[in-house]
Fold this sequence. Notes:
2 copies of one chain form a homodimer. In chain A, 45% of the residues lie in helices and 16% in strands. Chain A is α/β, with parallel strands linked by helices. Chain A folds into 3 domains: 44 residues, Orthogonal Bundle (434 Repressor (Amino-terminal Domain)), CATH 1.10.260.40; 125 residues, Response regulator (Rossmann fold), CATH 3.40.50; 129 residues, Rossmann fold. In chain A, the strands form 3 sheets. A 6-stranded parallel beta sheet of chain A has the order 2-1-3-4-5-11, sandwiched between helices. The first copy, chain A, has a 4-stranded parallel beta sheet with strand order 7-6-8-9, with helices on both faces. In chain A, strand 6, helix 9 and strand 7 form a beta-alpha-beta unit. The radius of gyration of chain A is 26 Å and the shape is elongated. Chain A starts with 6 loop residues before the first helix and ends in a 9-residue tail after the last strand. The relative contact order of chain A is 0.11. Chains A and B meet through helix 4, helix 5, strand 2, helix 6 and helix 11 of A and helix 4, helix 5, strand 2, helix 6 and helix 11 of B. Chain A binds a DNA duplex through helix 2 and helix 4.
Amino acid sequence: MRRSPTQADVAAHAGVSRALVSMALSGRPEVAQSTREAILAAASELGYRVNAPAANLARRRTGLLGLVLQDVSNPFFSEVAAHLQDAAADAGLTTLLNDGRRDAGREAAAVETFLELRVDGLVIASPLQGSAALAAIGRQVPTVVVGRPGPVPSVDFVHVDSVAGARRATEHLLALGHQDIAYLDVAAGVSEPLMVDRVAGYRAALEAAGLGGRSNVIPDVAADGDATERALVCSPRPTALLAHNDVTAVAALGFLARAGIEVPHRMSVVGYDNTRLAAMPQFNLTTVDQPSERTGHAAFELLTERLGGRDQARTVVLDPDLVVRRSTSSRR
Amino acid sequence: MRRSPTQADVAAHAGVSRALVSMALSGRPEVAQSTREAILAAASELGYRVNAPAANLARRRTGLLGLVLQDVSNPFFSEVAAHLQDAAADAGLTTLLNDGRRDAGREAAAVETFLELRVDGLVIASPLQGSAALAAIGRQVPTVVVGRPGPVPSVDFVHVDSVAGARRATEHLLALGHQDIAYLDVAAGVSEPLMVDRVAGYRAALEAAGLGGRSNVIPDVAADGDATERALVCSPRPTALLAHNDVTAVAALGFLARAGIEVPHRMSVVGYDNTRLAAMPQFNLTTVDQPSERTGHAAFELLTERLGGRDQARTVVLDPDLVVRRSTSSRR
DNA sequence: TTGAAAGCGCTAACAT
DNA sequence: ATGTTAGCGCTTTCAA
Lengths: 332, 332
């Protein structure tokens, strides 16, 4: 673990000047083929590896993208991360991750780390920081916020339209003949913008169908599916349940199974997020899928435009898809 | 987004020399209190932020830890990451993540990125690369491998003893009076070392109880719980199932529910990994918990020792815990 | 307590 | 096609 070889060592070994080594290694065309080969051979012989801090300092660009995930274990964001990484890699950029840990302080620290490293661009998934803080970040480095609606000046946004997603899910149930559709909401008191949008989409679909009066939003107090129990005693009793996410929908399935209510014949259930849970054969949940691939690509696209000089903030809104599985059927 | 201020700017603004700024910002004691305050004021006024590439180049240490996760969505590893991050932060080190994406090539690229960045230490979770490649990495930077047994020269290891975990789970079932315990294994053909260890632990416990002959290992061919179906037709029919992971155990619960076999009264089920799934109220799965916190701390500990000069490779083996929930009970 | 100066390893503009 | 040279922004002796 002694001092690692530098370009000077490679140059000496190959019998050329330091500058030539740099040019050869970065693949510049004006180096003679034979010289290049000699240099490459010397480099690999010595186990040479570029010193990124030095190169980044001299170049005044790092080729790094910083990605702050609020929660590494959120499958949607980790998929977005994967697609973003792929797109960046194709463009010769390296993506670095940092976990915000659902904590505004840690999130800010992660951003600060990336700013110190002088990343060329920053993507923040579902940030906890306020608009002012985000705007300040956006002024220092091209920044894209994913999974939360904007706008914030000097920051780009890409998010999936939750209103449209919930509307589409509700329309699916309406098309199956359901008229009494209960919405299993997040626990009362929690008010994330996305969750508010989902309720709005549900209501909008009912109203458009002339069923605005049947809207029935039930908060999941203990976050364990207890809303289902309360939904069943409503009158008229719902024939379909739309949950704000897959976990709640699965909890509903569990409760219905214990209560002997067959799904989908006697009750249709729709989730949201299309997590792995929804695809599991024993759940087979109809759910709303957020397009992680398009999200990741859009985020990279926005970043590229910024690096290319765009100055105006942009927002990209994507439409979610409905994945129909076997937890929904016509009202009998 | 113009050129960001440097220490020279801060020095000019505060009316001191550049070197003093550096000393003041890095908190060296030999700077007069009043001078330090003036410098700090100037720095924050200008929005100064250290340029990590420059500092890292000059210092020849980065204060960075690179963490390569094989799969960001594996909850065990993401918890390990969180604890490692905390420990590192306490010691003034910054942790950077990179997703290996279950792909040896990407994993190698992630490692390479970190080596170029000149991280002070590297942690690789569940690497796909072979021992030779790992040894080569370990020779260049202090390296800890998590979640896979060693040894490999010049690399440290920390992993959770899967033999002990499966043994303990089996002993729990034996203590409840079960004698016919089927093991739901990974699909045949897959042979990860950890999975092999789990089977070994199961067998060891049975043998220690004088029941070696009743060992009954059933591969989950379609990875959807089909093993459960085949377990039920064994003779004598098992009264308990031990699954190689929680997902399989949950699949088993689903199958048993459809078959009208009550859990735990007519069948006990044990999972492995203590994922979020296991804790969900409708599953309430007894399972084996791998201590992510101790793993993260141990990894950091090993790294610290290396940075402190230790030269000999070390391996730390941790014992898993059994989390007893409501999917197991006495044989009726 | 403060300042001057020598690099850290690399890139890029320029000269040959 | 190859070599020379001047920084990049910072840390860290060493003198003052």
